[in-house]
Amino acid sequence: MSQAASSSSTSQSSSQAPEVYSGPRLEAVNLSKRYEDGALALDKVSFKVNPGEIYAMLGGNGAGKTTTINLFLNFIEPSEGEARIDGIVAHKDPLAAKQKLAYVSENVMLYPNFTAIQNLDFFAKLGGKTDYSKDDYRAVLLRVGLQEAAHNKRLKGFSKGMRQKCGIAIAILKDAPAILLDEPTSGLDPSAGREFIRLLTDLRSEGKAILMSTHDIFRAKEVADTIGIMNQGVLVMERAAADLKGENLEKLYVQYMAGHAGSEQNVETIN
Amino acid sequence: MLKVLIEKELKSILQSPKFVATFGVCSLLILLSVFIGINEYRSSVAQYETASNWVDQQIAEATSFRNLPTKVYRKPDPMQIFVSGVNFDIGRLSEISVEQDIKLEQSAYSDDPIFAVFRSIDFTFIVQVVLSLFAIVFTYDAINGERESGTLKLVLSNPIARGQYLFAKLAGSWLGLTIPLLIPILIGLLLLIVYGIPMTATSWLKVGTLIGVSILYFTFFIALGLLVSALTRNSAVSFLLLLVVWITLVLIVPRGAVMAAGQLVAVPTVAEIESQKDRYRADAQGELRTTRNLRYQSMMEPAQGLAESDRRAFYAANIDLYTEESNRLQAEMEIVIEQNNRRVNENLRNAKAEQERLAFLLSRVSPASAYQLTAMNLGGTNTSMKNRIEDQMVDYRATYNAYVARKWQQEQDEQAALLAEQRRGGGAAGGYTYAGSGNQAIDSSDMPQFTASQESVAEVIQASILDFGLLAIFTFIAFACAFLAFIRYDVR
To answer: By the 8 A CB rule, do B28 and B130 touch?
Structure first.
């Protein structure tokens, strides 16, 4: 299912995008971030996410998951290494990179005085999609599970679950080849979480490359093609989900977080 | 893309309660100020016309050029409706008789001091204080507020250049403030037409320029709001910071500059000037007395030791010469005193001008001062208004008094001729009869009229171009700094 773990291509530098790009959709190459106060948030992290693949980053608070996503979005600049989207280096050509990225944050915040449809319309246009009709917006809101009654309501009264649905609707509307999700299911009730996962698998089948950070080990195991575990800015484990079948991921996770795993042949990529 | 961003900014501003508040307050204040301004203008026109009519009537009834009225009145200018400036502080009339200095007296505030307590709110004040404050209210959370609410990350996850985003913020707030300004001011201008206020093409041009300058002025505060909002993380902090900056720029710097200039350039007080003049006059008079005494003594010297009757004869023979010379000396002294007074006044004016120049120079650090100075230049109600009108009155006084002197001479000549004729005819009773004291009115049709000339458009533009340019530079710098701050802004 996953080709992410193939070890040979990490060294291949491909900052120059070829005519027809055939490399990984999302790629972190030795990605490092040291903050001004000297704290090393990310230490030479490398991974790839291919089209039609879901990559789940697991890790505790401060492991570097959000930092990784922020680097792809060029919200911060890397101290070293590159974050690439279809070969485009995020910090060198951020606008071109963002054209290819959709982003759903942990806590989707939209304009409270605008209705759901107005918010969708604004963000779709920002994403460069100017020819959607109101029917398109209604259709996508129904697809993400937001009831029709809420479509023309202001966002003011929306619950977190409703806002997350709007957030994923915006990502769907942008129709970008890669989607970044920063703990999208945290705080959602189980049925909302399940619905969310169903949407992600749909998007995967459309060929999107999805990078998702999460605390939720069970969801990760359920939906992801590749699972990476991060600890203190380092990618300590990366495995194809198929390989983890039958293994106790939770136990593995706890071991890696404690810093004494890898005695077995489990560790495939540690930089 | 820019259009989408601006549309969204404008839409959220139009929906926000702060827009409703701004629109309501601005409409109310502007319409009220124009309405009150129109009424004040009309009442001062009425007052001016009453006074002028009274002068005309006195002239019509006068039977001699000796007893003409000696007051001249300042005609109100409709620009005072928008920029009252010093209009209510300087006098409405001045004496123009030969003996008196030109000095505007009886200002609206000295007539009715109650109005000076709560000074009239004009359009300029509303823009300078109220709109600039609203500009800050509109933009204090432009950047950091979006960060706090979490929308900034989502917006900037799209391919949008930060400069573009910032410009959209500027444009949205700008439109959101221009609407509450323009709608009531256009209605106000309509009121001017309805009330038949005599607006010339120049006046319209001035009002148009004033509106343009006003818009430029609050654009600065929008850019300033963006700057502070892009420099801070927290919108509560940026609001507080902006409030401090606003108070400094709008309230402290202009007054501080005037106070500092007062400390740096000493200007003698009115009392000092008056006592200086009095002392000079007293000295001159003392000197004249001494000279006269000496002259008298030297005149009468040859008569010493003569008999009383001879002495009287000598006195009678010489006294006319003495009186003539004495009068000549007196006249010479008056000229010298007049020259001195003029010199003292000139020095005072120069010192004041120097002080004012320094005060304005210092105060121009603040766009609020630059705005007010431009507005007053446009309205013609700047600090030079008094000097300008007084200068025109000085010129008029010379023309007028020359005319009256000529006419009076003519009248006397006619009188003498008439008297001679009467004597020849022998019909009249003895003694001096004043022929003009009958009911024959004088012919004053060729009397020069006082018309205060307005500054030309070119002069107005010249006077306001510096402050206009300053405002533009301030705005550009604020926006450029906001851009630099936002480029570096941590959106997380």
So the answer is: no
Task: Tell if the CB–CB gap between A112 and B158 is shorter than 8 Å.
Answer: no
Any domain includes B79: yes
Give kind and range of the element (H or E) at residue A81. strand A80-85
Report the gap between the CA of A20 and the closest CA in chain B (Å). 22
Task: Tell me which residue range forms the domain holding B141.
Answer: 2-261+452-487
Domain assignment present for residue B304? The answer is no
| Buried-exposed string A53-73: b where 16+ CB fall within 10 A, e elsewhere | bbbbbbbeeebbbbbbbbbbb
Is residue B18 one of the residues assigned to a domain?
yes
Q: How many domains does chain B have?
A: 1
Contact yes or no for B16 and A113 at CB 8 A = yes
User: How far apart are the C-alpha atoms of A178 and A167, rounded to whole Å?
Assistant: 15
Residue B157: which of A96, A101, A109 has the nearest Cβ? A101
Computed on alpha carbons and rounded to an integer, the radius of gyration of chain B in Å comes to 33
Q: Tell whether A132 is within 8 A of chain B (Cβ).
A: no
Query: Using one digit for the tens of pLDDT, what is the confidence trace for B160-200?
Result: 999 999 999 999 999 999 999 999 999 999 999 999 999 88
DSSP notation for B201-245: HHHHHHHHHHHHHHHHHHHHHHHHHHHHHHH-S-HHHHHHHHHHH
**pLDDT tens-place string over residues A64-74:** 999 999 999 99
Are the CB atoms for A90 and A72 separated by under 8 Å?
A: yes
Segments in chain A forming alpha helices (H): 65-72, 94-99, 116-126, 134-143, 148-151, 160-174, 190-205, 217-223, 249-258
Tell me how far apart the alpha carbons of residues A242 and A155 are, in angstroms, rounded to a whole number. Answer: 40
In the three-class reduction of DSSP (H, G, I as helix; E, B as strand; rest coil), residue A173 is classed as helix
A35 in contact with chain B, both atoms CB, cutoff 8 A: no
Is residue B463's pLDDT more than 80?
no
- Whether residue A70 and residue B492 make contact (CB cut-off 8 A), yes or no, is yes
B17 touches chain A (CB under 8 A): no
User: What confidence score (pLDDT) does residue B226 get?
Assistant: 96
Q: How many CB atoms lie within 10 A of CB B270?
A: 8
Per-residue pLDDT at A266 exceeds 50: no
Interface contact flag, A95 B160, Cβ < 8 Å: yes
pLDDT at A13 over 50: no
For residue B272, being part of any structural domain is answered with no
- pTM, entire model: 0.83
Query: Which residues in chain B are contacts of A99 at CB distance < 8 A?
Result: 159
Q: Which of B4, B150, B156 sits opposite A125 (nearest CB)?
A: B4
**Strands across the sheet containing A88-89:** A40-49, A26-34, A80-85, A88-89
